[in-house]
Structure formats: C-alpha cells, structure tokens
Amino acid sequence: MDVLDELLTGTRAQDGVFNLTILDLPWALEIRDEAPLALATIVRGSGWLTRAGIEPQRMEQGDVAIVTGPEPYVVGDTISATPVLRIHPGGVCERLPGAPIDYSAQLGVRTFGGRKSGEIMVASGTYSVAGDVSRRLVTALPPVLVVPAAEVAGAVMDMITTEIQRDVPGQQTVLDRWLDLALITTLRAWFARPESQAPGWYQAQTDPVAGAALHVLHEDPAHPWTVTELADRVGVSRASLARRFTAVVGEAPMSYLTGWRITLAADQLRSTRDTVETIARRVGYANAFALSVAFKRVRGITPTDHRRAA
C-alpha cells in the first residue's frame, strides 16, 4: 500500500472549478476561491504569487503553484501589483476598478479577460477537500509551494488551455481527472525537492525498515499489531524497528497506527451511518468503548460528538 496513493484517493477532484484568465501588462489577478486546496499555473508569461504572511514566490512560464487554505492570494507581474480581476468562489470573475473596460468580457467557456492573444495567461483549478484522510495530506503541505516547469510533467500541463475552453459532454470529468494528474505530478516533484521538508510518512516510503512497516500497517490497519509482530514482518529486531521508524516517520509505530486508525474512523463517522461499534471493529478496536476512549484521547471529543458536528 502506497501511503501517498491512499491519501490522494481521498483527495480526488469532483466538480472542480476552473478558470483561464488572459490579461495584458501591467497585470494582477486576485483569487478568492476560498478553496482548501487549489492549483495555479502561468501558461503564458511570468509573475509573482503573493499572499499575506508568506514570502512572495516567483513564477516563470509553466511553473505550478499549489495553495492550501481559504485565504486569498494574488498572481501579478510585480509583488505590489494592483489586481484588475478577482476570482470568486464558483469561478465567478469580477472586473475591479482601474481595469481596462474590455476586461469585463467573458472570452469563452471558463475564460475571462480582454483578448485571447493577451500577453499573460493564468489557469487555476480548485479542489473540494472532504474528510480527515484528505486533510492529512493538505496539512502536510505549506500554505504556498511552487514547482518549476521543468520538474512537472509537461504533457499533463500542456492539456489545460485546450481543455478549460471546451464545452462538450463529459468535460467536467475530463477536467477533474486533469486536476488529479496535475496535483499528483506536482506533489511528487515537490516532495522530491530538498527544501520541501516532506512529511515523515512520505520520506519513509523509500526506507527499507520504516517504509516496509508503513506499507504493512496501511494494508491492514485493523490487525491487532504489536511492535514485536510488526518487526517480525519487516525482518528486523523490535528495538531496530522502533528506533528506525521513530527517526524517519517522527513518531513510534504504535502511535502512528493509532493516529491512522482514528483518521479512518473519523472519515467513516462523517461519511457513513454505520454504528460506532461497526466502525470500531473495522479500524482495529475491540468495541465502541475502546474506540471512544482512543478517539477522545486523540481528538478531544467522542466519536458521537464528532459525527454530530459533521
């Protein structure tokens, strides 16, 4: 079981919102899509991505940015550029004061700006992230990350300008799957960069000891694992497993397993009507009481309260 695959499975795009914005210099586009996870790329031209409290990020043509959290951000030709267009939730584009009058035009399906041959072209797409498994991935990412074009799969990114502007049956599904591919290829490239500070569960996947243990735990989280049995499966001593797993992942094997079980249970409490007893046994607890004790210790509330809050 690939841990990143499992986290991405819960983060697939569904009814993603897309915009293609075409502008001329000087330019700036404010994006207020309020999405928990968004992707943006400068298809034509170059500029800066700025966000309150974050170091400005330079973006060259073809670079891809992933943005987490609902706070707005700006893509423009300079760090202090004044936005001329604003993208609202649902892909609604607003012309702002000072913008050329022709920027109010909609150029086509999901496309806004003044003229199709404009000097700058920015594509953006948003995810609707639901569930604790998905949030486990999102919280592992910085508020803004930018991956150079050379490190992102070119064929995947080259599709977007054509696909966004099409309006044919099944197009939303095509765009959603494109967004999935773009996210996966960008994240893999980002996590491979030394400065990414990739989370422990990602770094561990290539480690012969910690990675092997992670795969075993994710394949069968409900099994009544002990460190001794896990070490036997991996083929190392109990002490070696505990030491290596903690060093690479950042927490002990059983602590990691508890967190993952609670994450799975939290998702099922939100997305199903199964009883707490059923969910408890499915994720590795003997009964509802055992799950409730562990859930409250980790999350601070009971499974029932978590479900009610959803």
Structure explained in plain terms:
With 310 residues, this protein is of the alpha+beta class. It contains 13 helices and 13 strands. The chain has helices spanning 3-9, 132-138, 154-158, 160-164, 171-191, 200-203, 210-219, 227-234, 238-249, 253-271, 276-283, 288-299, 303-309, and strands at residues 17-23, 28-31, 37-44, 47-51, 54-59, 64-68, 73-76, 85-88, 92-95, 106-108, 111-113, 120-127, 144-147. The strands form 2 sheets. It has a 7-stranded mixed sheet with strand order 10-11-1-12-3-6-13. Strands 5-4-7-2-8-9 form a 6-stranded mixed sheet, with no helix packed on it. The longest helix has 21 residues, at 171-191. The radius of gyration is 22 Å and the shape is elongated. The mean pLDDT is 84.
Blueprint (SSEs and pairs):
Elements: H1 3-9, E1 17-23, E2 28-31, E3 37-44, E4 47-51, E5 54-59, E6 64-68, E7 73-76, E8 85-88, E9 92-95, E10 106-108, E11 111-113, E12 120-127, H2 132-138, E13 144-147, H3 154-158, H4 160-164, H5 171-191, H6 200-203, H7 210-219, H8 227-234, H9 238-249, H10 253-271, H11 276-283, H12 288-299, H13 303-309
Parallel strand pairs: 1-11, 2-8
Antiparallel strand pairs: 1-12, 2-7, 3-6, 3-12, 4-5, 4-7, 6-13, 8-9, 10-11
Gist of the model:
This protein has 13 helices and 13 strands. It has 310 residues and is α+β, with helices and mostly antiparallel strands. The longest helix has 21 residues.
Give the tags:
single chain; 310 residues; 40% helix; alpha+beta; 13 strands; six-stranded mixed beta sheet
Mean pLDDT: 84
| Sheet with the most strands, sense and barrel status | 7 strands, mixed
Tell me what portion of residues adopts beta-strand conformation. 15-25%
Q: Which stretches are low in confidence, meaning pLDDT under 50 for 5 or more residues running?
A: none
State the assembly state of the protein chains.
single chain
